[in-house]
Amino acid sequence: MIQSVKLFRFLLLSISAIITCSGDSSSGGQTLSSQKTIRSILVAGSLNVDTFLPISRFPSSGENLTLLPNTHPLVDVPGGKGCNQAIACAKLSSSTQQTQQEILRVAFLGQFGNDAASQILQSALTSNNVNIDLCGKSKQHPSGRGYVMIVPDSGEVSAVISPGSNFYGWSKWGVKNPTDNDQQQPNELLTDDEIKQMISPHSLLQLQCEISDLVNKRLASAAKKLNIPVILDVGGEDRHMDRELLQCCDYLIPNETELERLAGHYTDENKDERQQGDDKIETTVQQAIDDIQPLIGQSLHVPTLLQHARRLQKNGANNVLITLGAHGSLLVKKDVSSILYQPSCPLPSGSRVVDETGAGDCYRAGFAVALLQQQCGSYKDVIDDDDEILLHCMKFGSAAGALAVTNKGAVPSIPTLDDVKALLSANGEAAMKCIPRGGADDDAFPFMFGSRINSMKDRLDLVSDSSPTSSPRDWLRRQATIRGLGCVDFNYPQHFHDWDAKEAKQALDEANLVAGAVCLRYPSTFARGAMNHPDPKLRREAIEITKQAAEVAKILGCSEVVVWSAYDGYDYPFQVDYKDKWNQIVEAFQECCDAYPDIKWSLEFKPTDENTRFFTVPSTGAAMLLLKDIDRDNMGLTLDMGHMLMAGENPGQSIAMVGDKLFGIQLNDGYTRLAAEDGMMFGSVHPSLALEAMYQLRQIDFKGHLYFDTFPQRSDPVKEAEYNIQRVKDFWNAAGRMSKSELERIASEHDAIGALELVNQSLREC
Prior knowledge:
about 40% helix; eight-stranded parallel β-sheet; about 775 residues; 25 helices; disordered N terminus; alpha/beta; nine-stranded mixed β-sheet
């Protein structure tokens, strides 16, 4: 059975009740016990002391940079993948609420150097309750060191590693180093039985690629014979892994770059076998690909990720878990029996990315701790689906990784189990509200999404014959299947002919959605104008309809009314008195604002339309003048990307001009042909303008929701909305990673080339 994406309600079950395994060495400590139980994770790997260098950006080839002003290097910080993951496993396994019946121990196997740094590393491990009895100490080699360049604005890091004793201190294990004078004699080498005895008390083995492959292979081989689960983090040295090591690892965990590099070391020996495997992916998991790709975004190609994973599996790998940073994680199970996708975990409220150094290590440690619980049967009593158990493990790892990026340093940033529980609990309430493919998404994003409800009338051929599709109630029901959608904007009076506002509110509640805004759509009775109709009676009727929309908004539980009139304008010169029409609109809005001071009123301008060739308010600048004349605190603007493009505006500049008077934003794109509103998917035509729009929304601290005003007549409107949601998140996150100092430099110098280079770099991350 293919399991691509599951929304489930078990975020806290395993964390709050840690049921453990016995320490029976014959089975790797994986049997249930009603007595006090002791479990142990053995982490074997590297340990470094790191030096952090804060810089404004990464240097190009041959370039020298100085540190950021008023900063100094942060030196001798414990790190290294093995050290990080051991401490993370210990901190993620110990809760202030843990009972005496529950004991989880963490041991570390590594090689300390012959210098003072080894004392720093030993202290870091033992002070976090990591046992180091299995560790050795090199007589000839210093401790490993990492030199980490970090860009504080974005949290991005790049490092150079000096391996030291991590590579060259394993002579007893048979690792040869031609420069050593004290190579072990054959009778001094560890035997396979000694290694098996060394790891037999442990319940799970965790490895990385910052030590010798020979050591990893000997450990993994012994663990497999003992039926102890093995996790191998591909992070570290880029190197080929032989089939024996891959076969011994239950879970291989690369990021997307490491996956591509590692897969590149292998070739498909049999072309027919390769084609058969590709056909299997095509026929077995195509629906999973279709579901996952919109969530991950277009910067990562899911079929390519699967092809790389399959190549590794053909060469011996079992389960391949691919970490994708802000895009989440993807687990390709052995033989592609399931493909599981877990979105990234939201950062804690008010937090930002500070340093990404240890995030991957915390994810892997979190996954290992949660996996050990499920290997012991901790989830089996409450979750009867193995895929949901694994999704929980991925979720737990994601939460640990998210917390790690909010502080500096690999070890100092490692969260505790209580920290992770609190973050999962904070996000659990939103996840509980989800219905299959609908409701609020639990991704890391500060805004709620809405989408044009009328688009649900498109492509009815994709809807089951038994599903009604003729009314707003039916369209809302279809819209509720959009993954990540949180709110619905209704048109008034267009959507309220067959039901009333109370019935609409009930339908929203049933769909786990809320109302975002009520948008005016005046009937054709007002073809010669609504708020500025030449007939005073019809003008009064239009104003009353506008105020009725506020009443509907209050019943629906929202506080926004958006006014767009298809008819307030003219077609020919001398047709209207411009000042008179302007004043009529000002007075109408003043009346509405005063009658409903608790409603946020906003005007959505448009430069031209087939109904009105020239609108009374045709641009952002004119709309700002209108706000000045209306002079009400509860009056603002809703900007539509397509309308701004039609007006010849740069949306980012318009957003910046409006500032805190921006009450709403409608997202789309278009080719900007004369008088044409294309309603294309967001960022599809003008990606650089889309990126700047997201950046400016950040700058003005926008507080509203995001609404997609698109026209998917020939596309699946549900998938189109899901694509829009993910693309907005991609652009939003890319804008958040842009270097503030570099943007300030570009702006101060009007550096066009620098701006384009920065945009291109950011778009590559989308």
